[in-house]
Amino acid sequence: MLLLNQSSVESDELYIDEDGQERRRGLRVRENRPVKIYEPGTARYFGGQTEDISATGLRIELPAWAALRAGETLNIHVGLNGRGQTLTNRRSMLPARVVWVRRGQERSPMMEVGVEFLNNIGAHVHAA
């Protein structure tokens, strides 16, 4: 069960991308949690942090050197808190698709990425 306080819930704002497509489909919660990502194309793991969370996906902050593109499939594990937790193996990670990538300023060490879960997250929550 996820408990939220009112200050952590973001209003359901509408974001439009460059193609005029709506990218927000539901309630998002501002939550900073560690993430571990496995990128199958390069067979690499790297870390990041969530900026907001919804039932259908995440907005995450990642290192700018991570070579991600829209349409790419990743495996993601969201940690429980800012202190981190034990490492997880790839079989227990959630598959997700990169929907958009926003690179920061030219010399920025970070970028923002929007991902959409490929499986129904409700099935994973009820299994836990």
TrEMBL record:
GO MF term (any one): cyclic-di-GMP binding
InterPro entries: PilZ_domain (IPR009875)
Name of the molecule in the record: PilZ domain-containing protein
Pfam (any one): PilZ
Domain of life assignment: Bacteria
Source organism per UniProt: Humisphaera borealis
All copies of domain PilZ, residue ranges: 22-121
